[in-house]
Design brief:
173 residues
Length: 173
């Protein structure tokens, strides 16, 4: 309770940053791709659709493993950037995101990663496809892009729900 002659100052807290959630989604989406499609299922590696680095030769597998390692390093740097962005945001007094706000952005980032990766690596550069173990059929690449768009849509809807929750708490419309 404020005493006579003192003022209470209400500081409006800024809403959570969207940057961290999107960066987490980009990095974690890349890890899902690399860990499941490259390593566990072994459907493709970074360069398996190129004639120079076929996965069925030792030299080709070595080159693909190295390229996969650089890919994973890039994904790790995205996750590190997301962590730095999170801490920087909180240090600037921004609110921590609610679950829907944050995980909606993570899903959107994952979907964006997949769309970019699917269009650039699968279609434009053609360094690999979703299923190079089957000869790279286009149907798997198209399915991958459809799944990616669904991730973006689901993430956007979840994020919007989180925004509405923030708006209700802050009294904003």
């Amino acid at each position: 309770m404020a005493s006579a002659g003192t003022k209470q100052v209400t500081v409006a807290r800024r809403p959570p940053s969207k940057t961290a959630g999107l960066l987490y989604g980009l990095g974690l989406g890349g890890f899902v791709d690399g860990i499941f499609l490259h390593q566990i299922l072994q459907w493709h590696h970074m360069l398996t659709h190129t004639k120079e680095y076929p996965a069925h030769t030792v030299a080709g597998l070595e080159a693909n493993t190295l390229a996969d390692g650089f890919f994973h390093l890039a994904m790790w740097l995205l996750v590190l950037a997301a962590s730095v962005a999170t801490l920087a945001s909180w240090r600037r007094g921004r609110l921590a995101p609610n679950w829907n706000f944050h995980f909606g952005l993570v899903l959107m980032g994952w979907g964006i990663f997949n769309v970019v990766e699917g269009l650039i690596n699968h279609q434009i550069l053609q360094v690999h496809h979703v299923r190079d173990d089957l000869g790279g059929p286009l149907s798997w690449d198209i399915g991958f892009l459809i799944f990616s768009l669904l991730l973006i849509i689901a993430g956007w809807l979840l994020h919007k729900r989180g925004l509405r929750t923030l708006d209700r708490r802050s009294g904003a419309v």
